[in-house]
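Structure ticket #2291
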Amino acid sequence: MMKRSLIKEGINALINPQSKRRTLLSRFLTKVEVEVEVTLRIKAPKYFFLRADVFLDDVNRLTRGSLPQLEVGYLIYLLYENFLEKIRRGVDLHKYLIALQKNSKEFLKPPPELEKRDENHWVLGDGEGEKRKRGMAALMLTMKRSSALRGEVFLYDLQEYDPNFKMGVEELISLLFIEFISGIRNGNIEKVVAQIVNFLDAHQDEDEY
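Resolution: structure written out below.
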């Protein structure tokens, strides 16, 4: 959940007690000020960020360096933008988000370790040692406020529909990234790369995040 509410900030900027005394120009300037960037804190296991770097190196090799702009922050933004496209198309994402939140613990569960009992006997452990080593990290992702606000408004609408559902835009983007990395660990990397290339080609004329 975000520490500050983009919805509340937007409302306060548009509905201000001093608004009646503002000139048309000052109101326009206020709106311009609202349409700035916002920085979100995206949290995931440290290993996931490392795995993303390795994946992007694979992408660079498979595309022969044709996507130099693709780095971890931009990859995360693409995952979020792909989610926003589904919102714009009217896709029902309620059940997906509930499952995403429910499965987050499974995504974060470390693989079992091989523990040595004796010289010739190894067994699968519970992964607690790996979990302690892994830890969490955060990436500060800056994007247009309008993009972040679109996701937060959608989540707010879902919470109005389902009071038991609670999720902020930072948690959403974090889980989208975690789900993606969990998927490519056992997925077809070439297929994923092709999907990313197609997405970028479809949005090549749009502004960067």
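Closing remark: The mean pLDDT is 76.
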